[in-house]
C-alpha cells in the first residue's frame, strides 16, 4: 500500500458567498493512480462535509464578530476585538489538511525547483485620510478587526514579523514610512517553503479620497490570480466594510 499526502485548500471563503459555490481544491504530491483515486474521492465526497463545516463556521463567526467589535470613529479611536473561537476552530480543522493513505513509509524529500513568478499591481480608493488607512494596515486591533482573526505575531518595526488569518499569511516588515509607504516580505502558507514575495504599498491623498497602490513581485505564477482576488476580497473590501471607508466622510 502506498502513502499519499497532499492538501485541501478553500480559496474563496466569504460570508457573502453561497456555501454551495465555495470551491474545495484538493492537491496531491504523488503522481500515481492511487493518489488520483484518493484525490477524486475527497473532491467528491469530502467537499460536502467541508462545506457543511464551513457553513457552521460562517454563522458562528457572524455572531461572535458582531458581539466582539467596536468600530473606530474618525477621531482616531481604535476598535477592540475578541479573538473568535470560530476562527481558531476552523484553523484547527482545515489548516493545510493532510490527505493520508495507509502506509507508514515516507516519500523522499522533493528537490528544490525553480519557481516561475509574476508581478501583481493594484490600485484602490478609500474614502478616508491616508493616516487612517495607514493605521488600518499597521495597528494590531484594526488589523484584527478587518481580518476577523488574531494577528500574531504583529511587530510593526523594520524586521518585525507578522502573521495573519491564523497563520495562512506571514512575513516581515522591511520598510515603514508612516502614512506613506509599507514594504513587506509576504507569503501564503501553501507556497513553496521559504519562498517570499515583496509587497510595496504606497498611499497618496487627494481632496476627497486616499489612493492605495500595491506592487507585489515574486508571486508564484499559478497563484497570481488567486492572490490578486485575495487582496481585493479579504483586505480592501473588508477594510471598507469594517471601518466605513467606502462612504465619503470628508
Index terms:
250 residues; alpha+beta; six-stranded antiparallel beta sheet
Write a concise synopsis of the structure shown.
This protein is of the alpha+beta class. It has five helices and eight strands.
Strand order of the largest sheet: 3-8-7-6-5-4
Which outline best applies?
Answer: globular
How many separate helices? 5
How much helix is in the residues?
25-40%
Q: How many whole angstroms does the radius of gyration measure?
A: 20 Å
Compressed to H and E, one letter per element, the order equals EEHHEHHEEEEEH
The N- and C-terminal alpha carbons lie at a distance of 66 Å
Major sheet description: 6 strands, antiparallel
β-strand amount:
15-25%
Please give the number of β-strands. 8
Look at the helices and sheets and give the structural class: alpha+beta
**Low-confidence segments, ≥5 residues, pLDDT <50?**
65-76, 78-84, 93-110
Mean pLDDT: 78
Amino acid at each position: 500500500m502506498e502513502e499519499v499526502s497532499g492538501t485541501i485548500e478553500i480559496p474563496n471563503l466569504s460570508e457573502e458567498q453561497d456555501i454551495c459555490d465555495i470551491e474545495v481544491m484538493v492537491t496531491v504530491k504523488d503522481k500515481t493512480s492511487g493518489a488520483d483515486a484518493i484525490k477524486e474521492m475527497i473532491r467528491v465526497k469530502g467537499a460536502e462535509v467541508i462545506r457543511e463545516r464551513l457553513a457552521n463556521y460562517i454563522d458562528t463567526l457572524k455572531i461572535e464578530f458582531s458581539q466582539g467589535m467596536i468600530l473606530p470613529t474618525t477621531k482616531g479611536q481604535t476598535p477592540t476585538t475578541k479573538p473568535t473561537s470560530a476562527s481558531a476552530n476552523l484553523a484547527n480543522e482545515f489548516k493545510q489538511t493532510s490527505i493520508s493513505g495507509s502506509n507508514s513509509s515516507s516519500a523522499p524529500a522533493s528537490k528544490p525547483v525553480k519557481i516561475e513568478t509574476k508581478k501583481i499591481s493594484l490600485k484602490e480608493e478609500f474614502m478616508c485620510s491616508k493616516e487612517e488607512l495607514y493605521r488600518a494596515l499597521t495597528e494590531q486591533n484594526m488589523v484584527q478587526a478587518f481580518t476577523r482573526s488574531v494577528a500574531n505575531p504583529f511587530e510593526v518595526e523594520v524586521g518585525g514579523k507578522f502573521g495573519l488569518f491564523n497563520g495562512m499569511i506571514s512575513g516581515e516588515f522591511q520598510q515603514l514610512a508612516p502614512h506613506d509607504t509599507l514594504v513587506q516580505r509576504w507569503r501564503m502558507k501553501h507556497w513553496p517553503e521559504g519562498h517570499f514575495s515583496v509587497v510595496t504599498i504606497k498611499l497618496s491623498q487627494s481632496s476627497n479620497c486616499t489612493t492605495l497602490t500595491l506592487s507585489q513581485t515574486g508571486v508564484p505564477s499559478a497563484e497570481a490570480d488567486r492572490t490578486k482576488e485575495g487582496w481585493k476580497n479579504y483586505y480592501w473590501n473588508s477594510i471598507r466594510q469594517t471601518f466605513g471607508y467606502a462612504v465619503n466622510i470628508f
